[in-house]
Amino acid sequence: MESPDHLRDLKRQLENLRNEVTMIKNTKLIVKKAVNSMSKDFQQVSKKHSKLNSAYEKIKTEMWCSIVSGNTVLAARAEEKWKKIIDEQARLQRDLPDKYKSWAAIVKASTDYKKRVADYEAKITMKEEEIHRFEPCGSLTCKHCKRDFLAIKKAKVALKERVAKVLNK
User: Fold this and answer.
1) 58 vs 161: CA distance, rounded Å
2) Which helix (H) or strand (E) segment is 5 a member of?
3) For 130, what's the count of Cα atoms within 13 Å in the CB-facing half-sphere?
4) Around Cβ 158, how many Cβ atoms within 10 Å?
5) Domain coordinates of the chain in residue numbers?
6) Source organism's superkingdom (predicted)?
7) Own/partner pairs for 63-66, CB < 8 Å, 24+ apart?
8) How high is the pLDDT of residue 26?
9) Residue 146: partners with Cβ closer than 8 Å, 6 or more residues away
10) Tens digit of each residue's pLDDT (9 = 90 or more) over 57-101
């Protein structure tokens, strides 16, 4: 039998672990919001990129058609639009590496927090089992105390057999 101080220390450690898990889960919620925001940002960038690509192709076709038809005014306007789209695509391409780095950091943080929560929950389970070993519960179905359903069924069968023997005599 362990001393009450040891049991009290185990319970204090268990409470500290639970508090730590709560703090990690709260931080994980903040990271989850950042992941959702990042996902929306990624979708917007992808949508903008696809719009720029389709506009680029449309303007390119418009410019070549105006050149072939000999309409220089329309060709000059199309060329200006084309340059604006190319500049916008270049700006988007310059911004992407930094965005990818920040997105990767957010995803890594999310994964790390999930791993930390799992580790702490495993530690909590081990502490609970250790406390349970020193301070058994009164439950009839506790697996830690070796009182599971099979043991209860065996006890019921044994009791019925004893009652049957007593009644048969």
Assistant:
1) 89
2) helix 4-69
3) 16
4) 10
5) 4-135, 138-169
6) Eukaryota
7) none
8) 93
9) none
10) 999 899 888 889 888 898 899 889 999 999 999 999 898 888 888
